[in-house]
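Subject: design request, 105 residues
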C-alpha cells in the first residue's frame, strides 16, 4: 500500500513521547520544501520520558523497513508507515505527521 514519503520536518516521536530527528536527511531530494529521509540514517531521540526505574531512555533509532521501489542516492526512502526500533529500549518510533503530497511504495 502506498504511503507518504517521510521528510526532515516530519513529527516523529519515540513511544515515550521523545522527539526524534533524522541525522542524515538527503538534501538532493525535497518534498514540500524539505529534504527526504532514507533508511540508512539513524534518528536521534531527545526528551524521552522513559523513567530510570524502568530502564534507560531512548537515545537513537534505526529504521528496519522502508520503501521497496523508491531509492535516493541508492538508499531506500522512508515512508509514513516505515518501522524503526529505538536503542536501548527496543520500542518503536511513531510518525505523527509528515508531508501529504508525495506517496511511494
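Subject: RE: design request

Done. Sequence follows.
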Amino acid at each position: 500500500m502506498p504511503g507518504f514519503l517521510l521528510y526532515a520536518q516530519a513529527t516523529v516521536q519515540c513511544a515515550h513521547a521523545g522527539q526524534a530527528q533524522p541525522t542524515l536527511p538527503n538534501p538532493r531530494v525535497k518534498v514540500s520544501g524539505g529534504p527526504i529521509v532514507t533508511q540508512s540514517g539513524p534518528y536521534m531521540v531527545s526528551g524521552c520520558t522513559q523513567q530510570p526505574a524502568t530502564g534507560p531512555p531512548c537515545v537513537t533509532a534505526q529504521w528496519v523497513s522502508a520503501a521497496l521501489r523508491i531509492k535516493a542516492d541508492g538508499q531506500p526512502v522512508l515512508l509514513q508507515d516505515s518501522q524503526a526500533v529505538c536503542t536501548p529500549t527496543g520500542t518503536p518510533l511513531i510518525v505523527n505527521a509528515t508531508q501529504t503530497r508525495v506517496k511511494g511504495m
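The mean pLDDT is 96.
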